[in-house]
Amino acid sequence: xxxxxxxxxxxxxxxxxxxxxxxxxxxxxxxxxxxxxxxxxxxxxxxxxxxxxxxxxxxxxxxxxxxxxxxxxxxxxxxxxxxxxxxxxxxxxxxxxxxxxxxxxxxxxxxxxxxxxxxxxxxxxxxxxxxxxxxxxxxxxxxxxxxxxxxxxxxxxxxxxxxxxxxxxxxxxxxxxxxxxxxxxxxxxxxxxxxxxxxxxxxxxxxxxxxxxxxxxxxxxxxxxxxxxxxxxxxxxxxxxxxxxxxxxxxxxxx
Length: 255
Ligand code: LHQ
Prior knowledge:
- The protein has 255 residues and is of the alpha/beta class.
- Helices cover 47% and strands 16% of the residues.
- It has a 6-stranded mixed β-sheet with strand order 1-2-3-5-7-9, sandwiched between helices. Strands 4-6-8 form a 3-stranded parallel β-sheet, with helices on one face.
- Helix 1 links the parallel strand 2 (12-17) and strand 3 (48-53).
- The structure holds ligand LHQ.
- Ligand LHQ binds next to helix 2 and strand 6.
């Protein structure tokens, strides 16, 4: 059984962390396989990506049994975690975390690096880090602050409180909560919805929002103008306008 399973249905690629007996905890092997899956997801034929977990967890973060005494954690983060977080952000397409169960530590960071989170009603969100004397890593301090704001992010990360899906939804951490047995179907439907939209416009929208937080208004207006120039030169723009005027469903090809 591969530790990371990759499947493709039409234009949707699903990446499943597959160490259910270890709550899909992250090892060097999982990182490497996840990286290959994310490289594969850059294929233009893939228009939406789903990351989920096998069994009753999404991901319990770092496999704590893999670390001996006084490991060089910084080196490990740089070598294994950072490339995957950056690969998710570099994908010019939506990456959806289908949070099927426990989501802790760097597993929480992984989910928060994704563009969208859909939670099962069996999910739970656990900071984890401070519980073992660590700080949020793998982008956790970056993404969680953006999602929740600095005060709530600090309070949650520092208290190590387990969050249930209802509260996670109320906080805006997840976009929706669905019954556990409907998570896969609902996620597939959401992913298909994105896959049917114009890929270049979706990719550029992701880029724009990734840069908005640190840009000045002038810089962001300029970036919008540049990317809109590119968007307006796509065949999908021509198709979108034609379909609107002809009152039909557009067929976006990504060109
Ligand atoms: C695990 C793990 C796990 C191994 C459950 N490892 N076995 C850190 C260090 C270095 C480099 C880079 O980055 C990091 C970042 C991090 O990710 S630090 C944070 C690491 N993660 C945690 O501290 C979370 C630890 N796990 C938990 O808090 C709970 O297990 C959660 C909330 C995930 C699930 O709770 P329960 O549903 O109550 O399940 P459980 O605790 O009974 O766990 C089930 C099994 O999974 C159990 O094994 P066993 O053989 O007894 O059935 C756990 O030992 C194993 N497991 N997390 N991270």
